[in-house]
Amino acid sequence: MPAPYSFGETVRILRAGPSPGRDPRGQPLPGPDESFDVPGCVVTPREQTPTVGGSEQQARDTVIIGWTVYAPAGTDIRTTDKARIRGVACEITGEPGDWGRNPFTGLRGPVQFAADRVTG
What we know:
Elements: E1 9-14, E2 36-48, E3 63-71, E4 82-85, E5 88-98, E6 111-117
Antiparallel strand pairs: 1-2, 1-4, 2-3, 3-6, 4-5, 5-6
């Protein structure tokens, strides 16, 4: 069944528009808010397995570092965007992937992206 998924979640994509100029110190001014909601997403936890015996392991096998999101086909996600997932602000990491068209059904697949929790 193609997205949007009936029991999926709404993910808020946080996007700033083009900068209208620079401040007196030469830093770019934030652009207008162009954020939008994407309903019907599948959100799954994404984990990282620490090096066995390494200092990061600390007696645990995996660490949840963020989410993998499967958004409906055609959703415009950019690497410069941020996402709000379950109330948590996240950075889009890596290039979003479009699954393209299924050769068996002809239906478009989801747009997949990784989102890491923002810390600090």
